[in-house]
Design goal:
Layout: E1 2-8, H1 12-23, H2 25-32, E2 35-43, E3 46-54, H3 56-64, H4 81-86, E4 92-95, H5 105-116, E5 120-123, H6 127-131, H7 133-142, E6 147-148, H8 159-166, E7 172-178, H9 181-190, H10 196-205, H11 214-217, H12 220-233, E8 243-245, H13 253-261, E9 264-273, E10 276-285, E11 297-304, E12 309-315, H14 320-337
Parallel strand pairs: 1-2, 1-4, 4-5, 5-6, 8-10
Antiparallel strand pairs: 2-3, 7-9, 7-11, 9-10, 11-12
């Protein structure tokens, strides 16, 4: 089955996805009967189309050499991605453009346009699904398309997949998790007596934290992931206003080292229990599962009615698992429809 594919956004995630498509081409054909033909590519410079397909390796090499899509064969000057989608034959969009959590940004525009034309969408960009969850799902349903976005929640950690696929006839009674590596790293550093400012600076130096770390340290990145989880697998139909959010910027090294001497650990925890949703620093025993999520690690604990208590943890420093999650979503869409 040949899937005519658009790649929107050529940052680290989609470039790693292209590399995986090269590496796993034979496996995808052999095990799933699927071939991805890249017929449309787009970055911030513009959009290009090739009905015969672009070589993924050539796209990677071009971007690595500093080349932009506007300079590539098939470039469409003056056209937007939505224009190109309306004039091309596509089955799937991999969307990993920069995240805009206030308006959904260009990613929301592209997602709307694709779903409206019956083109399935796989997102690594959480903006569209945070801003327009219900709208996009209805749009997909109305146009016989699919929308999947497991990569938006903790990258390679398959929280959404497990809950949707494997908890057949089961209910999740509560869940809690560590969903943000930046805040996790800073708290770990501060527990060793390092100041908040120095811990943040080190996180920025290592590339863990952005120049503006507000979304991470004030809990909003975690809250957005909790929102996606709540609406997708708990069917909560909530907005960010329904989540109580507090961050870690007021926590002191003295408090953390004091708790450490008592055998405790402080983590920024996302929690969903009995219709209440929150993100806040919590003091946990050092033996707690989530206390064992260190540095780059993220984890989730889910209590169910018939499947027991489930624990999952991931170490993810590079974007490869996030890219792999996009591939997983796409395969699930098309092996089901094949």
């Amino acid at each position: 089955m040949q899937i005519k594919t658009a790649i929107v956004g050529l940052g680290n995630v989609n470039r790693n996805l292209l590399n995986i498509l090269v590496q796993k081409r034979e496996r995808l054909a052999r095990n799933y009967g699927i071939e991805f033909l890249i017929v449309l590519i787009a970055d911030s410079s513009g959009v290009a189309c090739n009905k015969n397909g672009y070589d993924p390796s050539a796209i990677i090499s071009a971007k690595a050499s500093g080349k932009h899509v506007a300079d590539m064969e098939g470039a469409l000057p003056g056209q937007s991605v939505t224009d190109a989608l309306s004039n091309s034959s596509c089955d799937l969009v991999f969307e990993a453009s920069p995240v805009d959590l206030k308006t959904g940004g260009p990613g929301l525009i592209v997602t709307r346009a694709a779903l409206g034309r019956g083109i399935s969408v796989v997102l690594a960009n959480k903006g569209p699904i945070v801003v327009a969850y219900q709208e996009l799902h209805q749009l997909a349903k109305d146009n016989n398309a699919a929308i999947k976005y497991s990569a938006t929640v903790c990258g390679g950690l398959p929280i959404l997949n497990i809950a949707e696929r494997d908890f057949v006839a089961g209910d999740i009674l509560s869940l809690r998790g560590v969903f943000n590596a930046t805040s996790n790293f800073i708290l770990d550093q501060m527990s060793e007596g390092i100041s908040y400012g120095d811990a943040l600076s080190e996180a920025q130096t290592r590339g863990i934290a952005e120049a503006d770390p507000t979304l991470d340290v004030e809990g909003w990145d975690t809250a957005n992931k909790l929102l996606i989880i709540a609406n997708t697998i708990l069917k909560a139909d909530i907005t960010l206003d329904d989540i109580a959010v507090s961050g870690i910027s007021d926590i002191t090294p003295e408090f953390l080292t004091s708790e450490k001497r008592k055998g405790n650990v402080v983590k920024l925890i996302a929690s969903a229990h009995e219709g209440h949703f929150s993100v806040s620093p919590m003091t946990l025993p050092a033996t707690d599962f989530l206390s064992q999520c260190l540095g780059w690690e993220m984890g989730v604990e889910m209590h169910t009615d018939i499947y027991g208590v489930n624990y999952y943890k991931l170490w993810e420093r590079e974007p490869i698992p996030t890219a792999a999650s996009m591939l997983r979503d796409a395969v699930h869409i098309f092996e089901t429809s094949n």
